[in-house]
Amino acid sequence: MKFAVIVFPGSNCDRDMYHAVKEVMGMDADLVWYQHSNLEDYDAILLPGGFSYGDYLRSGAVASASEVVQQIKEHAAKGKPVLGVCNGFQVLTESGLLPGALMRNKNLSFMCHHETLVVENDQTAFTSSYEQGETVRFPIAHGEGNYFCDQETLGELKANEQIVFTYQNNPNGSVADIAGIVNKEGNVFGMMPHPERAMEKLLGSDDGRKLFQSMIKNWGYTYAANV
Ligand SMILES: NC(=O)CC[C@H](N)C(=O)O
């Protein structure tokens, strides 16, 4: 299974994402500069965290207008997986691939610490290696992680079981404690906390591994020996 980690000017979690899929999970992966991209060869697209375009206008807004996002939309329309983490999640909402928006944290501060999340849906192709209701520890590192959508959209997210992770203790004011959502089709997933930074117990948690394991199990063809 081949992963593309898309790098925008200002991405800063791209190496962590690459490390997670390439070195920890043992998959094929490339760092792909947003302007030099032909995504046809890739099975999965990973949008990493960071400050694309310096968070100007709104986080993820400028990146969402780039040509590579058109290609990502085509990739997603084929049912192939797209995972956006943190700034990647912001790019996904800004580009309309996921509903809602990420607003400033309710305390208006950038927050950087571990949070406990609850697995709300273990039936997605991103979370099938987890148990329903399982709690996991992932780091957060964001200033704009306060997920918002209107009541109608929230109703749809609930009805379609698109809420995948919630915060046990909501740190940022997100509606319904939402930490991560999937699209209706189940192949585009965005979350604010960082699974790619929870790959080694030595660094505080390896709970992120199951997320990549799920993707590989559901979309991949080969397992590396160290998975
Ligand atoms: N780590 C990140 O991806 C940060 C995302 C975004 N720039 C924010 O502060 O909300």
UniProtKB/TrEMBL annotation:
Location, primary (coarse class) = cytoplasm
Reactions it catalyzes: L-glutamine + H2O = L-glutamate + NH4(+); N(2)-formyl-N(1)-(5-phospho-beta-D-ribosyl)glycinamide + L-glutamine + ATP + H2O = 2-formamido-N(1)-(5-O-phospho-beta-D-ribosyl)acetamidine + L-glutamate + ADP + phosphate + H(+)
| Protein name in UniProt | Phosphoribosylformylglycinamidine synthase subunit PurQ
The record describes the protein's role as: Part of the phosphoribosylformylglycinamidine synthase complex involved in the purines biosynthetic pathway. Catalyzes the ATP-dependent conversion of formylglycinamide ribonucleotide (FGAR) and glutamine to yield formylglycinamidine ribonucleotide (FGAM) and glutamate. The FGAM synthase complex is composed of three subunits. PurQ produces an ammonia molecule by converting glutamine to glutamate. PurL transfers the ammonia molecule to FGAR to form FGAM in an ATP-dependent manner.
InterPro entries documented for this protein: Class_I_gatase-like, PRibForGlyAmidine_synth_PurQ
Q: Which GO terms describe its molecular function?
A: glutaminase activity; phosphoribosylformylglycinamidine synthase activity
* Organism in which the protein naturally occurs: Virgibacillus xinjiangensis
Question: In which pathway does this enzyme or protein participate?
Answer: Purine metabolism; IMP biosynthesis via de novo pathway; 5-amino-1-(5-phospho-D-ribosyl)imidazole from N(2)-formyl-N(1)-(5-phospho-D-ribosyl)glycinamide: step 1/2
- Subunit details for this protein? Part of the FGAM synthase complex composed of 1 PurL, 1 PurQ and 2 PurS subunits.
Q: Does the keyword Hydrolase apply?
A: yes
Q: What is its EC number?
A: 6.3.5.3, 3.5.1.2
**Keyword field contains Chaperone:** no
Record keywords: ATP-binding, Cytoplasm, Glutamine amidotransferase, Hydrolase, Ligase, Nucleotide-binding, Purine biosynthesis
Q: Which PANTHER family match?
A: PHOSPHORIBOSYLFORMYLGLYCINAMIDINE SYNTHASE SUBUNIT PURQ (PTHR47552)
